């Protein structure tokens, strides 16, 4: 096998965000752009010679081309074997499961998660470590530094590998194994949940569910597990064929982009009892009851409170962890259980060290991501099965379970307002000016609301001691309400300002007040404190979830 050394020059802006490098497809299709970033990953690694790499993605546009390029470069880098999902398909949690089961050296996941696909859509790539989780900041920072000095990438000559059929092929001395993308993951999930009891629930004539795969990666997994192993009626899974452009939709499981599912559960004539959806790469989820959307923050708290009903977690939880912008609902559960609750920056990589150290069992982010120590990624279908396991045991609707949870713990009324595609300079100015005002906010009143504290969240990892600064501005009110501001690291154009609003309501008589009505005073405070309207020119958010 002859390694070909191809001269190259750096591209600016190849700095990974919250979960890898995400840009428009048109950017990735530039000559040497993908190759530069992949070579920077391989140059940052050490000890990969003869080792196993896992490779796959969410099936979005350009995945197939990128996989062939990466296979040739992996051979040049000295990998001994690459495990590739059939048709290039591997959901993000499934990739983590495969890495862990086969003790792979690491993995490359091709996805822009919940972002749109197609020739004019988004593309993404990230590296996962041998524990199955996203690479830490030390690694991604090293990759970025390498992208800025790269002068050559290495590849080999080889025909394209047939990805459509399970089997083995070779590129020089490297073996390429095309694997069933579902099998290892389904086996893992079956070991966690009471499949017999869930199957009994799905067989009941008075229980019907719908799972919307949003023409994204979880379609094959949901067909195989829900309709196959668990016996759900054919047609339970909708939009179940992965498409390169996600059928022209936006594969983000929230009430805006999955409105069809929400409307179906709100229609008494649909006969549906329970609904769920997942995103582009299968790591996010949305849970919907009858005319009731479960917020991701409430979902995490309910999963923790009902852990004893699920076989894999019945022995108890070591601890729970949530991202800082996620509501404090799970904190109240942890306090009652007498276990630790960790508050981390946004990004699943921050949960990895806690999970590896056995300090946490369940983790969650407000952006529809929940998971556990079974893999090192958030896991959409896992969350759906966890909910089905709870429903099967408790024999009551999802909305009743959440409302009973509020009665027991109080309600953390919560919402996220997204201002998308803001000019980067304006977004940076907004955050810089907000940070500059932090010292003057504690002890002041804004719109009549007393501010107790204000800070820029920082985090010291309790396991490895690493520190992360400037992770989001927090405004904390005297009554326990919070407003959090951060710029998202998952977009590909401009900047997305996320404003997180939270108010704790103990009084059960106020639990049914509509979310946006209950949070209206905080919305006004957020606009005034951060000068959102005056700086961005926006009169309101693009997405409310």
Please describe what this structure looks like.
- Helix 2 packs parallel to helix 3 and helix 10 (296-305) packs parallel to helix 11.
- Helix content is 33%, strand content 26%.
- It is α/β, with parallel strands linked by helices and 545 residues long.
- The strands form six sheets. A seven-stranded mixed β-sheet has the order 2-6-5-3-4-9-8, sandwiched between helices. A seven-stranded antiparallel β-sheet has the order 20-21-24-25-26-19-27. The chain has a five-stranded mixed β-sheet with strand order 11-10-12-13-14, sandwiched between helices.
- The radius of gyration is 23 Å and the shape is globular.
- The chain contains 17 helices and 27 strands.
Secondary structural class: alpha/beta
Number of helices: 17
* Lateral strand order in the biggest sheet: 2-6-5-3-4-9-8
Q: What is the overall shape? A: globular
Residue windows where pLDDT falls under 50 for at least 5 positions: none
Mean of all residue-level pLDDT scores: 95
Quote the beta fraction.
Answer: 25-35%
Radius of gyration: 23 Å
User: How many individual β-strands?
Assistant: 27
Gap from first CA to last CA: 52 Å
Biggest sheet layout = 7 strands, mixed
Helix content: 25-40%
């Amino acid at each position: 096998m002859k390694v070909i050394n191809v001269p190259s020059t750096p591209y600016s802006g190849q700095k990974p965000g919250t979960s890898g490098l995400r840009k428009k497809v048109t950017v990735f299709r530039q000559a040497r752009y993908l190759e530069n970033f992949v070579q920077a990953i391989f140059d940052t690694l050490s000890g990969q010679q003869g080792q196993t790499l896992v490779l796959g993605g969410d099936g979005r546009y350009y995945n197939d081309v990128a996989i062939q390029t990466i296979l040739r470069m992996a051979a040049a880098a000295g990998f001994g074997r690459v495990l590739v999902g059939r048709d290039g398909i591997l959901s993000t949690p499934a990739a983590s499961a495969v890495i862990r089961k086969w003790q792979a050296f690491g993995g490359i996941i091709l996805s822009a998660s919940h972002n749109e696909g197609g020739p004019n859509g988004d593309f993404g790539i990230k590296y996962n470590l041998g524990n199955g989780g996203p690479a830490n900041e030390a690694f991604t920072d090293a990759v970025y530094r390498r992208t800025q000095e790269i002068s050559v990438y290495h590849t080999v000559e080889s025909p394209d590998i047939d990805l459509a059929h399970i089997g083995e092929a070779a590129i020089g001395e490297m073996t390429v194994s095309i694997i069933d993308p579902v099998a290892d993951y389904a086996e893992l999930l079956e070991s966690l949940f009471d499949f017999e009891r869930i199957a009994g629930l799905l067989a009941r004539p008075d229980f019907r569910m719908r799972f919307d795969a949003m023409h994204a990666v979880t379609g094959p997994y949901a067909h195989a597990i829900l309709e196959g192993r668990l016996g759900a009626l054919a047609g339970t899974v909708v939009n179940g064929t992965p498409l390169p452009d996600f059928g022209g939709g936006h594969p983000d499981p929230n009430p805006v982009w999955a409105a069809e599912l929400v409307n179906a559960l709100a229609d008494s004539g649909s006969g549906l009892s329970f609904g769920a959806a997942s995103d582009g790469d299968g790591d996010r989820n949305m849970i919907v009851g009858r005319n009731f959307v479960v917020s991701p923050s409430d979902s995490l708290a309910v999963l923790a409170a009902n852990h004893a009903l699920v076989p894999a977690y019945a022995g108890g939880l070591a601890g729970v962890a949530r991202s800082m912008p996620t509501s404090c609902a799970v904190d109240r559960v942890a306090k009652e259980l007498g276990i630790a609750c960790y508050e981390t920056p946004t990004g699943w990589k921050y949960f990895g060290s806690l999970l590896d150290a056995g300090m946490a069992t369940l983790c969650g982010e407000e952006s529809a991501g929940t998971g556990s120590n079974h893999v090192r990624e958030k896991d959409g279908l896992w969350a759906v099965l966890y909910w089905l396991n709870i429903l099967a045991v408790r024999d009551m609707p999802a909305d009743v379970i959440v409302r009973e949870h509020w009665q027991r713990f109080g309600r953390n009324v919560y919402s996220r307002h997204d201002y998308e595609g803001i000019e980067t300079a304006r977004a940076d100015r907004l955050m810089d000016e907000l940070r500059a005002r932090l010292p003057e906010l504690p002890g002041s009143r804004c719109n009549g609301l007393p501010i107790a504290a204000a800070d820029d969240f920082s985090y010291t990892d309790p396991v490895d001691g690493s520190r992360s600064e400037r992770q989001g501005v927090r405004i904390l009110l005297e009554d326990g309400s919070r407003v959090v501001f951060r710029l998202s690291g998952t977009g590909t154009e401009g900047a997305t300002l996320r404003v997180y609003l939270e108010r704790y309501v103990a009084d059960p008589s106020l639990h049914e007040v509509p979310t946006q009505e209950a949070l209206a005073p905080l919305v006004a405070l957020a606009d005034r404190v951060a000068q959102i309207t005056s700086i961005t020119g926006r009169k309101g958010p693009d997405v409310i979830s």
